[in-house]
Structure formats: C-alpha cells, structure tokens
Amino acid sequence: MRRVALLRGVNVGGKAKVVMPALKKVFEDLGARDVDTYIQSGNVIFNAPATLNAKKLETAIEKHFHLKVDVTLRTHAQLKALVEENPYDDEVVHVGFLFAKPKKADLARVDAAKYEPEGFMVRGDDVYLHLPFGVGGSKGFMPHFTKRVGVPMTVRNWNTVKKLRDLSS
Fold first, then answer.
1. How big is the CA angle at 114 (ends 151 and 160), to the nearest 5 degrees?
2. Can you give the pLDDT at residue 11?
3. pLDDT digit string, tens, across residues 43-59
4. What is the largest CA-CA distance in the chain?
5. What is the pLDDT of residue 15?
6. What does the angle CA 160 – CA 6 – CA 70 come to, to the nearest 5 degrees?
7. Computed from CA positions of residues 58, 61, 66, 68, in that sequence, does the dihedral angle turn out positive or negative?
8. CB atoms within 10 A of CB 143
9. For site-directed labelling of 90, which of 8, 62, 67, 134 has its Cα 20 to 30 A away?
10. pTM, to two decimals
11. How many Cβ atoms are within 10 Å of 7's Cβ, its own excluded?
12. pLDDT tens digits, one per residue of 96-143
C-alpha cells in the first residue's frame, strides 16, 4: 500500500536535523519499498504493509537520529480526497495534518472570527488552514488554534500537499 509519512518539526530553523537519505534508509530497514522523500521537511512516500505504522516509524527514527519525532501517515486516497475537497482558494490554504481527531468541544473553543480573514475547516484528521498571509504572516491564529484544539499537527503548504498526492499515486 502506497502511503505518505509526515514528520513533525524536522529541519525547521536548523533544529531536529534529519538527513533525507538516512531517513530513507531507516524506512527501508523496516521493510518499506520504493521509498522516496520530498523536500527537507520530513515527507516520505513509500510502499509497505499496514503493519508498518507510525509508532514503529517514530521508534526507529528516535533510535537512528536520537530525536523524538511525531509521525502521521496518510494514504494516496486520503490525500486525493483532501485536494479535491479544498474549500479555499489554492493560493491561501495550508493543511494541518493532525495526529488525532480533535474533540468537538475543543474545536468550539477556537475563536476564528477574532482572526479573520484567517480561518479553518476540519476534515477528519486534517484541517484546512485559510492563511492569506502565510504561516509566518499569521496574525496569531496558528498558536490560538493549536492551543485550543490541543492536538499536535504538522503543517504543509498547498503545493506540497498536491505534490505528495501526485507522488503517492
């Protein structure tokens, strides 16, 4: 089964340095086949049975790189649906890949109106983030959302999401 592993917080601001060829080898050592990486932000596309799960990957990455890194997995079908159902203009959307489904009560605590025109829409374990000024230009919505929802996530820009969809087919 073709899947994409999304690693949280690697190679950001010179921290949590993970070299992609070495990461690829970690996946191959666990039995993954046809392993490719995309850019340096921790995107790995691979074939492997469902038994190769996020927990096994996190353990192997920690052992090899001596880093505690969260990993979440998505299938091609999930990425395809995510792209097809985008409710926002492609130019201003990012996707937060959540590491668990958020609770409705926590989502209700997000005061999106306070940060307009920024906003969000949750779709399962993923959240479309409407960020017209980009992640770096966010007016405080990103930390607000993360704090209220209480679920870790890793964010990718829209071009990366579309590329991961294409590479995972």
1. 50
2. 86
3. 999 999 999 999 999 99
4. 47
5. 78
6. 145
7. negative
8. 9
9. 8
10. 0.93
11. 24
12. 999 999 999 999 999 999 999 999 999 999 999 999 988 888 888 999
| pLDDT value of position 110 | 96
Spatial distance between the Cα atoms of 149 and 110, rounded to a whole number of angstroms: 7
At residue 98, the pLDDT reads: 96
The closest of 132, 47, 130 to 96, measured between CA atoms, is 130
Closest CA relative to residue 102, chosen from 57, 146, 56: 146
CA–CA dist 129, 141 (Å, integer) = 10
Which residues is 3 bridged to in the sheet? 46, 75
Tokens of 115: 């940060």
Bridge partners, 157 (sequence order): 94
Residue linked to tokens 């995107």: 43
Rounded Cα distance between 130 and 9, Å, is: 21
